[in-house]
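Side project, low priority. Logging it here so it doesn't get lost.
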Amino acid sequence: MKTTFRMTVMAAALGMVSGLMAAQEQGATAGSEPVAATTATHVDNGAMPGDSHVRIVRLSDVKGMLALDRKTGLGFEQTMQNMPIVEGEKLKTEDGYAEVEFEDNTTMRLAPNSQVDFSLLALRSSGAKASTMNVVKGTVYVSTESTKGNEFLLVAGETKMTVAPSTHLRLQVNESRTVVSVFNGSVEVQRGGETTLVSKKESLTIGADQMTVAKKVAGEPYDAWDKESIDYHKRYAAANAFAGGGNTYGLSDLNYYGSFINAGGSSFWQPYFVGAGWSPYANGLWALYPGAGYSFVSPYPWGWLPYHTGTWSFFPGYGWGWQPGGSWNGLNNVGMNGGTIATGTMPTGTMPTGTVPTNGLGKNPMHSPLRSAAPPQPPVAGATRQSLVLTNEKPMVMSQPDRQGNFVFQKDSAGLGVPRGSLGNLNHVANDVGRHGSASMPVYAAAPNGAEGNVHGATRGPATLRPGYAGEGSPGVRGNEAASTAGRQGGYERTGGVQGASPSYHGGGGGAQSGGAAAPASAPAGNAGAGSGGGASRGPVASPK
């Protein structure tokens, strides 16, 4: 039983990259599939004349097995975190869990055995964003932000639900009934010409021929998992004016997995656990989107905003860093070099000379990608195409448990493998990794309510690794439950470490690397350095405008 639970925990902790590994295997077979014609079916999704349909939303968290139909003609395919979702796509979970982030940080979570079709993702001529999701089956949670003017509509069969801003709800759909439960806010439900307003702490049950309102919300097994996800975003998300095009999704992960550095008059964001040898485009996936071409998908848990807006630059002594600002690049995030768009490019091979600064900090910034080569060619009639193309220019480094009860943070993992929000303040651990190359932390596995394992089926959710006491097998500090929130600077919320009996960690056997790893081949000679190079201040600094 303990072995089985440990395997479940490992899969959950590393679920953010499981899709990438599956995609690598599928990439060999996807290319052998024939190009299939897609027959469009008209659906009354609320589209209006003048709408723009270029919006993308983010698959922001992945645990377990998921599948996404990207309209490639190949049906449902394995997917991964940070995969863009466009209008008309379909997402389903099997034994997995998924979270989808919208532009204003509104979130939708899918429990296992659920399916959601994204019928409408439109930008109205007024600037408002209209989203219509058809919940085919399963359990779905929605938490909308306070953004005014946007339209958020859920559809389940013949029932339409208009979700108000600042609403938190749970929707359960099966063959016999639909139940919408409102924790906060309100939902307007329309069915068969009848309209019912469901308010805070009310539930509406829709059967074959009747609708019943209850003045209470009953607890369900996945509620604790949903609450834990909401708490994570509340703790780390902060709207910031720098986000390109007013898009703020992905900020929670930037705040948790990295911080801004002030160095030599420049300010840039950098993920924790990286050295000068790390490159933001060395590993990833190219996903085909019909009509748009290939879009680069990062495997890193924070890898959304820095791959759709802003600039990556190499800073001597520190490595690669990201500076926000500029326009928003949706699916077309495949090629800018010094501000000049290079269409149809994708990173393979080595970086050409002259693309990295030879003096100063942050000179000749490189937009995505950092290098260019010929992409897969568009298919012709009767030809084959690859839907998913894996790029691994160097071995992928991951942080992960090396044995039961011990988690190892690895240099150059850039947070890959680190569970979201549950291991406390990563800044302190990152300093130790910068000095020694690795650091370990005692951990234990817990369900979303903090209990070890599954307590008689009362709480369901992905098992999560949490800090424990050094040298003890019993549970220690319960994740971030006691985390204190520090002040916000520049719109970024930083959090302090766990108070009280804090979990300990120690440097691993990776060898002292306080001077930094060897510089990458493209880095200027004599300027190799660790991510926390001398003279820099790292932490909650004002984000650049």
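Brief comment: The longest strand covers residues 129-143.
Revisit when time allows.
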